[in-house]
Every structure is written in structure tokens, then in C-alpha cells.
Amino acid sequence: MNKDVKVIRVKNLYKKFGDFTANDNLSFEVSKGEIFGFLGANGAGKTTAIKILCGLSYPSSGEISVAGFDVYKERELLKRNIGYMSQKFSLYEDLTVYENIRFYGGIYGMTKQEIDTKTNGLLDQLDLQHSRNKRISSLPLGWKQKLAFSVAIFHNPEIVFLDEPTGGVDPVTRRQFWDLIYEASRAGITIFVTTHYMDEAEYCDRVSIMVDGRVEALDTPTKLKEQFNALDMDQVFLSLARKAKNVE
């Protein structure tokens, strides 16, 4: 992680839908190569914020740049410099492994030569050469998730956004998936990840916890546990939820 290089800058982000405030004055920065956990209960405003950071939605107000690009004026350039993997499996089930890789390489603006050069290396890395001509629908969920992540960073983006990437997979596969995340982070790719597994928050360099559209805590997992006198991140999360309920 290079703390001096900020690849995400968010200052006073507001997003309103009519009278409803989905994101309420969010401010944070994320460093190059950092694994940044973006946590919160359903309805806390995580997905709304991610859509804005990915250039898929406009903020109501605020100053936001991602990979050096302004979310108001440079959305198309922004999209070419990030990767994205959603909770809902993002590859095409009726295409083969090989076809999916080539298709997404083209979507990300890679040349045919770049795609050809990198495809075999990726298949070797994932031990999927034997399955290159199999339809995605025939693969186990764990392999699908690993491939989806690898495709999301196939074009070597500055940042990859992972929205609940390990939902529904077994603990062993989740651990293997995080090995891929660590490897990408060491290569300089910034990881912006949401998860509802609190044990996964422990794997992040820093964690932001949202409650009712606001960032209520942001620090390393160790410091957050110290701050809330908690044994694990589950207890931190529960403490913040109780605090918010009492305030209301």
C-alpha cells in the first residue's frame, strides 16, 4: 500500500432521492494498493455510494474523484480504469470460460493481442486450462467467483470494486478468494470491498462502517476493536447499531 497516493477521494458526498438521504456527508480517502472494507447493514447506503464511485450514478453534491477522474465530468474514463464484481454473478452463464475472458477484455478496451497474451496466463494461474471450453454454468460456484474476480482485474485497473463477492460460498473457498485479493493488492490494485461477513473485515487494511447513510466509524480493524472495547468486528458493528438506535 502506498499511503501517499490517494486513488479515491470523497468529500461531503450527499445523495438524495426526493426527501430521502441515502448518503449523508460522506468523506474518506483510499490509498493505492489498500484493501478498504466498506461495511454496513442492508439499507445503510453502501450500494448507492458504490454506484456513484463507479460512475453509474451522479451524487446530489460533493467532491469525488476515482482513479484521478471526476465523477461528474469524466465518467467514461473512470469506468475504463476500474474493475467491478457484483454480488449477483457477473459472467455470462451460456458462454464458455474462454469466451467470457475475451468478451470482457474487449469491453475493457484491451487489444486482441493483449487479450490473447493474457488469457492463457490467466487460465494457467487459475488451473482452468482443462475447462476453457466449458460453459460457465457448469462450473462450481467457487470457481465462478474466482474467475469473475480475475476477469474484473484482467485489464489491470487502478481500483476494483467488489460488492459482496463471497456471498454463498463455503469458508475454504472464501479464504482462497481472499488470497487472490491479497495478490492483487500486492500488485498495486486498490480493493474496495463490501461484505456482510464480519470476519472478512479483519482482512482489510482499514474498515469504514456505515449506519443510516453516514460513516460512523473508520479505522484499522485493530483500532476499531480497541475503540469499542470489542473482541471482534461483530461486536464493533453491534455497538454502532445500538448507538445509532439510542440516538434516534
From TrEMBL:
Designated name of the protein: ABC transporter ATP-binding protein
For this protein, the record's PROSITE patterns field holds: ABC_TRANSPORTER_2
Hydrolase found in the keyword field: no
Residue span(s) of domain ABC transporter = 8-237
**UniProt keywords, alphabetically:** ATP-binding, Nucleotide-binding
Q: InterPro entries in the record, alphabetically?
A: AAA+_ATPase (IPR003593), ABC_transporter-like_ATP-bd (IPR003439), P-loop_NTPase (IPR027417)
This chain's source organism reads Marinifilum caeruleilacunae
One example GO MF annotation? ATP binding
